[in-house]
Amino acid sequence: MARTDFYSNLVVWVKITLPIIALALLSSLFLLSGTPDPDAALPYAEVDIEQITSEQRVTAPRFAGVVGDDQEIVLRAEAVVVQGEEIEQIHAQSIDGRIELGISEIMTLRAALGDIDMAGQTALLRDGVTVQTTRGYRLDSDTMNVALNEVRLNAPTPVRITGPGLELTADAMEMEEVDGAPILRFTGSVRMLYDPQN
Fold first, then answer.
1. Which is it for the CA torsion 39, 43, 47, 49, positive or negative?
2. Nearest 5°: phi and psi at 46?
3. Per-residue tens of pLDDT for the chain, all 198 residues
4. Which of 20, 22, 62, 65 is in the most buried spot, having the most CB atoms within 10 Å?
5. 179 burial class (0-12, 13-18, 19+ CB within 10 angstroms)?
6. What's residue 84's pLDDT?
7. Is 178 exposed, middle or buried (0-12, 13-18, 19+ CB in 10 A)?
8. Distance between CA atoms of residues 154 and 145, nearest Å
9. Can you tell me the distance from the alpha carbon of 130 to that of 142, in angstroms, rounded to the nearest whole number?
10. In 3-state terms, the chain is what percent helix, strand and coil (to 5)?
11. Closest by CA position to 154, among listed 179, 133, 184
């Protein structure tokens, strides 16, 4: 009997004290939290609503073509804006590209901005272009023209190529595929350092 009374008293005591402790904890959270700082709030993105609604914008588009012996040319962008009423001139942002050069050789391209001419099947990449190959070579230039219907590149601005045993600079460069092999032509002031051991 005494054990039952103790258990009943304990249950009554817990029913009273637990809500009071919870209320005290919640009160301390609000009282000790301090005044909210409006400068510490999450920042909102500043966007021009009028510009977004007036232009034709597509996010994460992909442009692809097949040339030669089933070689694929692919360009992806973070976003594109169609210029004009007809979808022929496209302005692209954050471009990633991939060009297959035969069975095992692949080139990847990166650029901050680009203008894609759908009618002419060309893309002008600009604001820093980086090209890398699976053999470990890297090309850097400010601008580059890329054909979308054939394997052809043209860099009218100075280029720098680095890779295993090679460092080359030139005023301009052109690459095209002849009989299934890429041919590079450099013009202007061309300088090359070559280490045959690498």
1. negative
2. -90, 110
3. 556 677 777 777 778 888 888 877 777 776 666 666 666 656 655 655 555 555 567 777 888 777 767 778 888 998 888 766 666 778 899 999 998 877 778 899 999 999 988 888 899 999 999 999 998 999 999 999 998 888 889 999 999 999 998 999 999 999 988 877 788 999 999 999 988 876
4. 65
5. exposed
6. 60
7. exposed
8. 5
9. 9
10. 20, 50, 30
11. 184
What is the value of pTM for the model shown?
0.66
The answer to whether 124 and 114 are in contact (CB under 8 A) is yes
What does each C-alpha distance from 46 to 13, 49, 52 come to in angstroms?
56, 9, 12
CA distance 87 to 84: 7
Closest by CA position to 104, among listed 134, 139, 138: 134
Residue with tokens 């005494």: 2
Q: Count of residues for the chain?
A: 198
The H or E element that residue 115 is part of is strand 105-117
| Sole residue written with tokens 């692809």 | 64
